[in-house]
Amino acid sequence: MRFQELDWQQTPMGELSLRVRRDPALDREVHEIKLNDEFLMSSLFTVSETELGRRAVSRLDGTDLDVAVGGLGLGCTAAAVLDDDRVRSLVVVEALAPVIDWHERALLPAGGTLAADPRCRFVHGDFFAMVASEQGLDPQEPGRRFDAVVVDIDHSPRHVLHESHTGFYLPEGLAALRDRLRPGGVFALWSDDRPDDEFTATLGEQFTGVTAEVVTFDNPLLRREASSTVYLARAPR
After folding, report:
1. pLDDT computed for residue 45 by the predictor
2. What spatial distance separates the first Cα and last Cα of the chain, rounded to whole Å?
3. pLDDT at 29
4. Using N-to-C axis directions, what is the helix angle for 197-206 and 171-178, rounded to 10°?
5. What does the mean pLDDT of the chain come to?
6. Please, which residues have CB within 8 angstroms of residue 156's CB and are 6 or more apart in sequence?
7. Which of 90, 89, 42 is nearest to 70 (CA)?
8. Residue 222: what pLDDT?
């Protein structure tokens, strides 16, 4: 089949759909997640999401690492985190319950692998609200801190999926995130925009060692190179 809609559901954020199509030019299957009229994820472009998880964990020393990921999507960031054998546990917070269901039913390429890994646990919740709450990111262990918190939810700090997310990218929101990290822990953030000097400076008010790294990848649709940004920062020791 050239095109198949695997699932469609109405969610509090709008119409969510998962579809798979055959791209004749590339001769491959492409999985896509759409929220209303916006493409959230496409399996054509996963390099920067994978690099987000890989670069976050690579900045950490030691073993028995505990990591939290905000945003499940196609699972590329979570899979990259689990590729590091030093990771002891991974909590993935996802606001859209159908996305978790798709992974548990292995409707997505990474779904079966993530769901089967005993180190990985999916949590249905609003990542941004949980960061700001007393409970934190793990309902099973209130107030828990992590070695790394990795976020891939909004398109960028200036292009958010919902206006309620805006405060997270301001000093108060970033300070709350910092407090979810252990001393020296790593915060990593994906953005589809070029590096934002103003946001980088805001990060620097709460974290140390802040970098905005450009990740380039091939865009087969436009037949040119494209790029995203990975922000990396460390909580003060």
Report:
1. 79
2. 54
3. 84
4. 50
5. 92
6. 191, 192, 193, 196, 229
7. 90
8. 61
Residue 208 is which amino acid? T
DSSP 145: -
**Can you tell me the distance from the alpha carbon of 50 to that of 89, in angstroms, rounded to the nearest whole number?**
18
**pLDDT tens digits, one per residue of 191-208:** 999 999 999 999 999 999
**In whole angstroms, what is the distance from residue 36 CA to residue 30 CA?**
19
Write down the pLDDT at residue 220. Answer: 66
Half-sphere exposure of 162 (CA within 13 A, CB side): 14
DSSP labels, 33-81: EEETTEEEEETT--HHHHHHHHHHHHT--SSSEEEEEE--TTSHHHHHH
Cα–Cα nearest to 119, from 72, 162, 71, 83: 83
pLDDT at position 41: 82
- Evaluate whether 146 touches 66 at the Cβ level (below 8 Å): yes
The rounded Cα 182 to chain-centroid distance in angstroms is: 19
Torsion of CA 97, 102, 104, 108, to 10 degrees: -140
> Measured in whole angstroms, how far is the alpha carbon of residue 28 from the centre of its chain?
24
Give the other-Cβ count within 10 Å of 12's Cβ: 10
In sequence order, the 6+-apart residues with CB closer than 8 A to the CB of 197 are none
> Can you tell me the distance from the alpha carbon of 21 to that of 29, in angstroms, rounded to the nearest whole number?
6
Residues of the chain with pLDDT under 50: none
> pTM value?
0.91
